[in-house]
């Protein structure tokens, strides 16, 4: 990396957002990872979804090895003007938030817990009663 490093705006980097031209931003540096897409252990889609945003958090959350960090140097193309990065970035593929189960009051929750315990016991008791009744009927039929 020389002292005459090119500086890109966020908008310039964000244009490189597909499999044939994929640039990502990590720790204020811009990497052209297009040639690495096929070799990336996590698949090319992981890198493509890291475009159009600062992917530093995504990169650090994975816990890349030292070898992976050193390998990045080969794909370095310049720095990003950090002032051009939007303050709030929304991910390209925002997963829908999980739906919450309806809140039950403690009384109805306790009733459900009791039913979860009693219903299997009632079924088991019914099975034993039918088995006993069936054996008793067979023994009375064989005596006649």
From TrEMBL:
<keyword id="KW-0813">Transport</keyword>
<comment type="similarity">
    <text>Belongs to the cytochrome b5 family.</text>
</comment>
<keyword id="KW-1133">Transmembrane helix</keyword>
<dbReference type="Pfam" id="PF00173">
    <property type="entry name" value="Cyt-b5"/>
</dbReference>
<dbReference type="GO" id="GO:0020037">
    <property type="term" value="F:heme binding"/>
</dbReference>
<dbReference type="InterPro" id="IPR001199">
    <property type="entry name" value="Cyt_B5-like_heme/steroid-bd"/>
</dbReference>
<dbReference type="InterPro" id="IPR050668">
    <property type="entry name" value="Cytochrome_b5"/>
</dbReference>
<keyword id="KW-0479">Metal-binding</keyword>
<keyword id="KW-0249">Electron transport</keyword>
<feature type="domain" description="Cytochrome b5 heme-binding">
    <location>
        <begin position="5"/>
        <end position="81"/>
    </location>
</feature>
<dbReference type="GO" id="GO:0046872">
    <property type="term" value="F:metal ion binding"/>
</dbReference>
<keyword id="KW-0256">Endoplasmic reticulum</keyword>
<keyword id="KW-0812">Transmembrane</keyword>
<keyword id="KW-0472">Membrane</keyword>
<dbReference type="InterPro" id="IPR036400">
    <property type="entry name" value="Cyt_B5-like_heme/steroid_sf"/>
</dbReference>
<feature type="transmembrane region" description="Helical">
    <location>
        <begin position="114"/>
        <end position="133"/>
    </location>
</feature>
<protein>
    <recommendedName>
        <fullName>Cytochrome b5 heme-binding domain-containing protein</fullName>
    </recommendedName>
</protein>
<dbReference type="InterPro" id="IPR018506">
    <property type="entry name" value="Cyt_B5_heme-BS"/>
</dbReference>
<dbReference type="GO" id="GO:0005789">
    <property type="term" value="C:endoplasmic reticulum membrane"/>
</dbReference>
<keyword id="KW-0408">Iron</keyword>
<keyword id="KW-0349">Heme</keyword>
């Amino acid at each position: 990396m020389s002292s005459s490093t090119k500086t890109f705006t966020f908008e310039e980097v964000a244009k490189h957002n597909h499999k044939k031209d994929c640039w990502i931003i990590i720790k204020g540096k811009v990497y052209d990872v297009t040639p690495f897409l096929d070799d990336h252990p996590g698949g090319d889609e992981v890198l493509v979804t890291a475009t159009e945003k600062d992917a530093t958090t995504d990169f650090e959350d994975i816990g890349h090895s030292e070898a992976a960090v050193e390998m990045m140097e080969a794909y370095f193309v310049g720095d990003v003007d950090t002032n051009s990065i939007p303050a709030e970035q929304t991910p390209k593929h925002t997963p829908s938030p999980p739906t919450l189960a309806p809140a039950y009051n403690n009384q109805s929750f306790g009733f459900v817990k009791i039913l979860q315990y009693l219903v299997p016991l009632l079924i088991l008791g019914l099975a034993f009663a039918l088995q006993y009744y069936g054996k008793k009927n067979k023994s009375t039929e064989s005596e006649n």
